[in-house]
Structures are given as C-alpha cells and as structure tokens.
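User: Could you write out the 3D structure of this protein bound to fe (ii) ion? I've included everything you need below.
Assistant: Certainly. Input first, then the structure.
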Amino acid sequence: MSGFRTGFIGFTLVILPKENDIAVANLFFENNFEEFAVSQFDVHVTSSRFEVIKGMEGFVKENLEKLLMPIEESWQPTDFIPDLAKGNWNEEIIEFKARAASLPDEVMVVLVGDMVTEEALPTYQSWINRLQGVRDATGASNSPWAQWGRGWTAEENRHGDLLNKYLYLSGRVDMRAVEITVQHLINNGFDPQTGDDPYLGFIYTSFQERATKISHRNVGVLAKKFGDDNLHRICGQIAGDEARHEKAYKLFMSQIFELDPAQAVLSFAKMMKTKITMPAVLMYDGRDQNLFEKYSTVAQKTGVYTVKDYSEIIGDLVQHWKLDTIQGLSDVSAKAQDYLCNLSERYAKLADRVTFSGKEKFSWIFDRDVILQP
Ligand SMILES: [Fe+2]
Ligand SMILES: [Fe+2]
C-alpha cells in the first residue's frame, strides 16, 4: 500500500523506508552482507554423510522416548475448546466467543497465518521423507528415523487442528477465506532449499521449530494481554511442543557436529547464507498476491516474529553448537565458522532499522484493514 519497498529477510518481511532504500536493499537483495557466495559453502549428500545419519540410528532410538510424548499422556485439541456433547455447550460457546471478541484484528491475522502454516503439515511430512537416511522406506518402517518422522508429524498434526477449531468457534474470521488459503498453500508446496540433505534439513528445522515456538508464545502473550485466557493456554501448549521439537532437532545436529564437524559447519553456513524462509511463503487466498508479505509485516508490527528474533535464533544456535570452540577446521570450514560467529550481531544491527507504516486489507478478517503504525 505504499511508498515503501518490501523485501524478505528469511522468515520475516522487512519494509524498507525510502531514505535507507539503497543501503538496506543492498544488504538484503544483493547479498553483499558478507564476502562469500552461497556456492562457497556448497555441500552434497556424500556417502559419508549418509553413513553418519545411518550410524545415528541407535542414538535416535535411545532418545525417542524423551523427545516424543507418549500418546496416552498427550494433550488433544478438544481439551481446550467447548465440548459440544455437554448439556451446557451453548453457554460454553457464548463465553468462549466473548473472550475471543476482545482480541484486535491484528492478533487474528497473525493467528490465522500461524494456523495456515500448521495446517500445511502434509508438505512437511513429504519433506522429511525426502531426506537421505531419514526417510520412511515403507510408510510404516520401524527404523528409528522413520519413527521420529511419524511421531513428530503426529504431534504437529494437533497444532493446526486446535488452531482451526479455535478460529472456527471464535466467530472472528472468514473461515472460508482461511480454508481457501490452506488449500492453496498445500497445493503450492514449499521448498526450504535443503534438497534431500539431512544436515541442511536438521539445521532448517532447528531454526524453524525455535521460530514457531517464539511466534506461538508471543501470540499467547498478546491473548493474555487482551483477556482471552483460552487462546493464551492454547498457544502456550503448542509453544511447549515446538520447544520439545526444537530440542530434538538441535540434539540431532549436536551429534552431527560431534561426528562430522567440518561438514556440519559448512551446512550451517550454507543454510544461513540461503536464509531460512518461512514454510508458508507460498500462501495465497485466491486474491492477494502479496498475502505472505502482508502477514509477515503484521507479525513484525505486533512483535510476534521479528528481525530481532531472527538474529536471536542464529545466536542461540551458534552458542548451542559451540561454534566458537570447534578446532582444526580446514580453510573453507574455518571461514564458514567465522561467518557464523559474527552473523547474529549483523542481523541485530539491521533490526533497529526496520520500519513500516500504512494499512493492509485481509480477506481473513472480512476485508477489514490492519493499521501498520508501530
Ligand atoms: Fe507446530
Ligand atoms: Fe513445529
């Protein structure tokens, strides 16, 4: 809507104010953020990578129990929404809707974006089954990696299900427009730029699970602030799952850093150079070609997911995998190590320069505008 240039920094849209256009645009679009090209950190699924992954099966098996919740002890979506089988169902729904009525439109928009992202789960299960050494060879394989992939998917499936039910019962959004967006997103798919490489894949998910944890947690904080305790509990519960999944993928990568440090460092650098793109980047409601950009701007504006978060996640991963202590790397891996150790700070400096203004219309909220003034 505009007078502003827009661009993506990984997962988040950044609106570039006119006066800083050239400087910031160079940083984002022309990749002179640092002196390396993506191809310098190029990696391939070699037989040694495949061997490392296959060799981790025992490790994965030992950790499965602590990384996945037993299904009998798991929460289910119906634990958080009115029970329509109860005698007083109508009173419960009135109360539920009254709480949801207190939320501003901008919170509904980020919540819909998060829900649509979760609902595209078929895309993510297809993705994990492309990774070499990880894929489920039969669809019901007993291999530890296949068990992880299915268990993770089964846990994730509750997220979209619960958010979908919440949104439907809230009466706050145009559910048909939301459902069209989900169908388009699954139809369009998503390419996280990991190919079939498990190292790249687990770097991506380590980042992404932390990002979704932050996003759900922040929506929960907003829900509490505006008086919707139901949504606060829902988002907190989902953020808890994302935190456990983040822990799992970070643990898998920690093991890869132990076994194959030079290739692990190169893979981390390659994914950071490529940038982590949000899985819902191809969302479309059948009308709005800029839907993802608009949703990302609202996420930035509400503080649900920001450039600062992007920077913080890189810093957390660098620290978690103790990048600065890895010794004996060859020339290119040492360069990659150096690049990674300084990256969070570089993004943090950019975060202060993000501004936006104007307003955006969303089909999800019956074509009402969201004002973007911070
Ligand atoms: Fe999720
Ligand atoms: Fe997740």
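The CA atoms of residues 193 and 315 lie 21 Å apart.
User: Perfect, thank you.
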